[in-house]
Amino acid sequence: MSRTSVVLAATMALFGPIDLKNSPDRTLVELAERPAVKAALAAARMLEPQTIESQVKFSEIPAPSFKEGARGEELRRAFVQLGLRNVRVDRAGNVLGDRPGAAAHPHVVVAAHLDTVFPEGTPVKVKRDGAVLRGPGIGDDSRGLAVLTGIIRALSQASVQTDGPITFVADVGEEGLGDLRGMKELFDVTLKGTIDQFITIDGTGLGVAHTFVGSRRYRVTYRGPGGHSFGAFGVPNPIDAIGRAVAKISAIQVPAEPRTTFNVGRIGGGTSVNSIPVEAWMELDLRSVAMAQLAALETSVQRALSAALSEENARWRSPGTLTMTRQVVGERAAAETPAGSMIVQAALSATRAVGASPVSTVSSSDANYPASLGIPAIEIGGGGRGTDAHAPTEAFDTSDSWLGTQRALLLTIALAEK
After folding, report:
1. Three-state SS at 215
2. How much is the pTM?
3. Is the pLDDT of residue 290 over 60?
4. What pLDDT sits at residue 319?
């Protein structure tokens, strides 16, 4: 008996038949035992070294948010070489390719994001240390992009025919100030009204996320008259106001449940060491799994920002000359795909089918947007083990990473079944 058969038999013993379509003859077990699907799963494992090489290649192409073009072009070439139909780039920069099904529905979209958090000039050469790959963005989300290609390659090698079509998407604007612009274009324009199920492969591991964290991101700017550091001493200083604001924000108490967080991610301003700046700014990231708590946090932050303005103006001899503006630069609604929904249960079942224990996680990702629209959407990890995401020391352990490719492949096929 194959490894897959053993795992699936154990799954049935522990959990009973996993019925994805409310029909006894449409179980995940039966699906995985179909000759073509079985061959595809074997191909995913056999071709994992190629998937890992793709991961390295994608990671070594810089792709800061808003500058994903070069990496997107590499994905476009890969989609063409792998035989996808109607490969195109939409208005936002998303790269799409189709694998037709026997019918028009269910239409499944499988996505991974192109952009990284790292600015231009960041060294992106991947270093190898045995089974471990090291480099900024090697897991988030070069792994997701590589798994996309791994799924396509395995489906093609095994000649799997699905009921519904599958569209593979390498999307833009997931990180930083991207504000999910790729997803908004995809769901509002490019594929509007056609998507039945959505999966984003984001990062590493074998987690399944169906609860999505809401966020509000702001750019806060203080402005004043500026002047010579000696001659104009005594006018309100925008950077002093930023310092006051950061100190007040850092003292805000937030609940552990529902999990709520804040972060001052960037600060800038000024022209020289001997000039009182005319302007200073900071960027804030506020998050919560509950929209009501997010709103309460925003209120507390606004009080801190206003108090910092008032105190800086009152401190010096030119009261009222400092001003503040606050601009929303990113917004994600907290959303949830119900735990009992078919797509969530299918993802958990597919995880068990490859021999792993399903773990539900909470996340903020491309899936926020479709979930907020009521479209069944989840995030899954791409397998392997990642560390230090969003840091220059990011690393990816490739040990058994093929499980992530297999899991994503099986889930994609299952969702494309009528």
Report:
1. strand
2. 0.87
3. yes
4. 66
